[in-house]
Amino acid sequence: MAAFSAEFRWFVQNALFPILFFLLQVLNGPSSVGDMSSNSNAYVDKQGPTSHPAASSFEMTKNTKNQQNDSKGKVKDKPIQGEEKNLKQSDQATANASSSSLWGRENGNPMTLAEQEDQPDDSKEKAKDKQEKNSKQSEQVTKHENSKSSRGEETMSPADQACNYAKGKWVKDNRRPLYSGSGCKQWLSPMWACRLTQRTDFSYEKLRWQPKNCIMEEFEGSKFLKRMKDKTLAFIGDSLGRQQFQSLMCMVTGGIERPDVLDVGWEYGLVKARGAVRPDGWAYRFPWTNTTILYYWSASLCNIVPLDAANPATDHAMHLDQPPAFLSRYIHMFNVLVLNTGHHWNRGKLMQNRWVMHVGGVQNTNRKIAEIGQAKNFTVYSIVRWVDLQLPKYPGLKAFYRSISPRHFFNGDWNTGGTCDNTTPPEGKEVLQDESSDSVAGGAVKGTRVRLLDITAPLELRDEGHISRYSIRATPGMQDCLHWCLPGVPDMWNEMLFAQI
């Protein structure tokens, strides 16, 4: 008898009920059966098996709608495009709602028993809770954005984002200079310390650059070191890059002797080779903040390799499309990088140094690139493009290309009696242009993540700030209208840099 009861229950559940269900569907009309079948297949094609509770709810909801439309005689064979879109959106919303109500989570995982018991029964109470949740999220987003803004992060005002530090004017500031030109002997080369020469006019030390549409943060050595804690700033370029390096060392220390600052040049291979006048660069570390400032001499910003390493008189391959070996070797150690090149690009320098242009690993045969100006432009674009490709690998690195520092030779050139005797600071002159005066540098960084440290236009107003004839190593009949007295104009480059890091 027990076996018969079990078999009867199996028959009712697995045979009789499906037959009765099918008969009920037939009585309701063939359209309902067809719709349900097609809807089910569509869901399987897009979403997988319909064993998921949300799939069953989706099918039954669609079926109910079709039955209601059939009873009113308003079912169309194919809805117009707009109605079809609305129906799909409505069906999807219904499916999502059903899934949420049956499974309790958007990720499709069933709720635990404790979570089900915590669910409120009143739909209005649910809506209220949801509204409060959205309100709290909105407040959190607002607080986060305000916090970012207060830290000077991504949410800068449009004025700050559009700040063009190259637009502005030079103003007198009696708080200048930022350090003593006669006291910063630990870092400053005597040939650039005009206070140690016979020059008697030092009004050039009192000028500060004032951008037109924004405030440039005033430089403070302690603030700089805190900002650069556990970081390394690298200058790579020519002698003007070295001037910027020495200027920054004097600015950070205030020109005061600091025996506690460590010489760590050996960590970067910056040691004087046998027979060399000086090493290829210098690196110093402030131990209390672990801040390193270094300079590497690379006049052309490209890779220069001797063609015959065993021959001291050999020619050197000047690979215009390759970065300096020092940069490619140590870029992973840098947090701020400042590059520059420019005034060494002349035929005399190339011949003197026995540099032979190479592109693509072979000697250059392109006549356009062979022209000195085009070779320089090609190299600037190449180095900026290479650095830009490295930046995703080193998210903490900020890279700058500094525009060219102008010369001011009047009545001749450096070797034909050109002079820069003016000692009168600029008055009433202002830079108003939006584009950089160094179109090559501006074009090279455009569309890249490398930033332009644009100094050219402001410096075009400062012909009185050059070393002129007062250099300690002056040659009779020749003036230095390329380099600058320190303290002086290069300090502004570091102020502009400080404002952007």
Automatic annotation (TrEMBL):
Protein name per Swiss-Prot or TrEMBL: Trichome birefringence-like, N-terminal domain
Keywords noted in UniProt: Membrane, Signal, Signal-anchor, Transmembrane, Transmembrane helix
Trichome birefringence-like N-terminal domain ranges (all copies): 162-214
Domain Trichome birefringence-like C-terminal, residue spans: 218-499
Start and end residues of each stretch annotated as Disordered: 38-159
Membrane topology: Single-pass membrane protein
GO BP annotations, alphabetical order: plant-type secondary cell wall biogenesis; xylan biosynthetic process; xyloglucan metabolic process
Biased composition, class Polar residues, residue ranges: 38-70, 89-102
Main localization, broad class: membrane
Biased composition annotated in UniProt, kind: Basic and acidic residues: 71-88, 121-154
PANTHER family: N-ACETYLNEURAMINATE 9-O-ACETYLTRANSFERASE, PROTEIN TRICHOME BIREFRINGENCE-LIKE 14
Family the UniProt entry places it in: Belongs to the PC-esterase family. TBL subfamily.
Subcellular compartments: Membrane
Listed GO MF terms: acetyltransferase activity
Highest classification ranks of the organism: Eukaryota, Viridiplantae, Streptophyta, Embryophyta, Tracheophyta
InterPro entries per the UniProt record, alphabetical: TBL_C, TBL_N
Pfam families listed in its UniProt record: PC-Esterase, PMR5N
